[in-house]
Design brief:
Four copies of one chain form a homotetramer. The first copy, chain A, has helices at 2-23, 30-57, 61-65, 68-85, 92-100, 114-152, 161-172, 185-201, 203-216; strands spanning 224-225, 237-238. By secondary structure, the first copy, chain A, is mainly alpha-helical. Chain A has two domains: 2-112, Up-down Bundle (Four Helix Bundle (Hemerythrin (Met), subunit A)), CATH 1.20.120.350; 117-216, Orthogonal Bundle (Helix Hairpins). Chain A has a two-stranded antiparallel ribbon. Chain A starts with a helix and ends in a 16-residue tail after the last strand. Chains in contact: A-B, A-C, A-D, B-C, B-D, C-D. The A-D interface holds A 174-178, 206, 210 and D 174-178, 206, 210.
């Protein structure tokens, strides 16, 4: 029963995301937009029922409402209703933005992926070090962006320091759009140096995560399911667990 | 004898791939196209004989026919024959597509590379974790793509959400074509943030594979050959093996 | 008290960087530029007081003045005063360059990040090996750039060997602007080979850092604060330290 | 004495490379080209003396002549002399190519970098596995390139299968020039998938090198010098060595 409910929800989430994306495409037949509009309402009403059912079925609703998934679930239903009440031509952009907020529904899906918790923890463990590293990269980009602004000037597209810093980030991360590119020999020399350095330091966060992950890898793995505790709403219980691991509530599994 | 057959086959596979590629190039002398056409038929007939010989020489042909290599071998011969029977001008694209399917012949080559099995196993081992990671990247791209669609609008090329998501994937994976690039200051700021984040999280799959590979590395290495068992058609026997390691069939090596 | 001073300084540094960047943006209201100008002077005077205070409060000022942070602190104040004294229209560029030197103030921020020392040490440890590697990449780029210059010629943008080497660095580091791209079949073939090789060797510095970092990881972590020793001006003391770890000076902590 | 000779040689190599590069730049004063021309001859004559001296001073010249450094040393001198003897306007390109061969002189420099041997060995150790991996990437690129050729067609720049494969390599290695980019929705979807896959598999060679390097790291380090054995011409002796480690020849160090 719970399995079927889960799969239905999963399909509805994916359908909803596809609807949001298709809605923004121009040039489709007018019937398609009408179908997307009504389909969207059906899905939103379903999500509303799910949200209300979750609040009713657990003992401390406030804990759920302000949890990560509670906020995501609210965000998945409210915007469409709100967009219905806002009127007037000037509020058009606000309505459009609200409707697009539905895309955050995709985060509901993370409930169904057991591995995602482990991955999130691994990122969290090495997060502080990687943040320091990314900050160092940013500092380097601000300094080199200013230098390139001075050397290249406005002719090559380096119109201001913020634009130059943007270019430096695009280059250092090896994205390289090519909308802005150095044109003077000196600028190209320094750009080449920035690239070589960027190539060398990309190794640092990788090394950090490798070492952390290798250390984390020895921890055991257990299978978790998506059953929700009626008391505290936490959802990652071990398969076969009889009591909630957080609050001790009976999970009513025989 | 088997060695010579193997090398002939290898050369024919490579020749065939070069033929398929050259056929699509415009502006060559007309004699070249005629040569490619006849050469293609010769190679296809050779592959047909190989396919039939394999089916005849083993005891349970059905097991071979539905195996990975069996399907590849079939795919290497059938399309050209089929393209011969399809007529009418409307079927031109289908014929062209069928003829291009011959490019899959290159997968026949994997039979001759002993290391490829080990590599495939290493990817398989860490595959589930990397898939979860890639899925997380995709979720992030859908959300950020929608945000950029709202900020940049159609003037900068962000015509619809699917296009914006495509742009976000191009940026996050550091490919960076430059056919679509943010033009507003706010859009460039968010793009810079996406790049910095993409630069930081590229470390995650690398860390996973490093740790898995280091653990896998201690397994021993043996030399395998391409001799085929007459009973079960499996092909990676140890050098000097007398019986098939899967079904126990005598390999007739003295 | 020291905490409040630290936070004030941090905010001033960030403000100053934002001021330098905004100053270069064209098209803002004229009042904004005036505000930036006066704001800049206020911050510079504050930094001057900080610099003088640091020199007075320690016993051996010369050691501080010629240290890394001492030079950064000097560089954060002097340029603006100097730009005030240089006159004449021909000196305009020099003044502009001097004013932009203020961007180096961002390095003052590294004092407040405990992790940065560890990161710097990790980079230093594997620095020699990565330098050799980057040098090898450079040698490869010079050779391949010359080859591409010979093959592609001036029509495709490979105007001289330095430009070709620049293109090769852009390609090898996977930045790929697209301002210069090979147009002949042979050039594209060699470019593809360069990319595949670049893709393979990016693994080398990563492997080096991973191994070094994993070895370095076992060293213990202690909390350091930003308190400055009155004698030798070194600033990374352990929390609760009573004497300077470098010169033994009493830190006057009860 | 040997130290001074080494440094002189190093400077001459670097000067020579700069000369080759500058020679290709258009628009410099005519005196510069004349200076480069005569400077080039001086350096080449110096290298010729070095080459002859090396052959005379060792007992078995043939072993040196056909060694890696012997061939590099020959390549550093011969082309300029040959270009002198080739006459006629039709041989202009050959002369230009010969003259550019001088860029290989930069490989002479590797003699002076002790670490480079270790790096080369590390790459060699994991070379076979990385080659298999790169081959797998190539196979994937050929298949996906053919698929993209079929989907996109000539309008988007996918003119032939070789061009499509080139595009696929540019994309998979995350270089992304943008000279060719998919324009149809289906093409962009498949391109996005190729990028995501490329992002995932870049981890594989990194993981391989990390594991190999970590295993190799425990080997001890000794200081080597560039002194050459008079008998076998090998050059990486330990500091203070009295006899050649390869042939046992007396090195005449007191």
């Amino acid at each position: 029963m719970g399995k079927i409910f889960d799969i239905t929800l999963l399909i509805l989430i994916l359908l909803s995301i596809i609807f949001v994306m298709l809605e923004s495409v121009k040039g489709l037949p007018i019937d398609t937009y009408r179908f997307l509009y009504y389909g969207e309402w059906v899905i939103t009403i379903f999500f509303t029922f799910e949200y209300v059912a979750r609040i009713i079925s657990i003992k401390k609703p406030s804990r759920y409402i302000f949890s990560f998934y509670g906020l995501i679930d609210l965000l998945s239903t409210l915007p469409l209703y709100l967009s219905f009440f806002i009127t007037g031509t000037s509020a058009l952009l606000a309505v459009r933005a609200l409707r697009l907020l539905r895309v955050f529904r995709i985060l509901k899906i993370s409930r169904y992926i057991g591995e995602s918790n482990r991955l999130a923890r691994a990122i969290k463990d090495s997060g502080a070090k990687i943040l320091v590293f990314l900050f160092a990269v940013l500092v380097l980009c601000i300094i080199m962006g200013t230098v390139m602004y001075l050397i290249e000037g406005e002719e090559s597209g380096f119109k201001s320091i913020p634009i130059s810093v943007y270019w430096c980030i695009v280059t250092m991360t090896t994205v390289g759009y090519g909308d802005i590119a150095p044109a003077t020999p000196l600028g190209q020399l320094i750009a080449a140096m920035i690239m070589i350095v960027g190539y060398g330091i990309i190794a640092v966060p990788t090394g950090i995560v490798s070492a952390e992950y290798a250390a984390d890898r020895k921890s055991k793995k257990v299978n978790l399911n998506t059953q929700v505790c009626a008391n505290c709403n936490c959802s990652d219980h071990r398969d076969g667990a009889k009591f909630c691991y957080k609050c001790g509530e009976d999970l009513h599994n025989e």
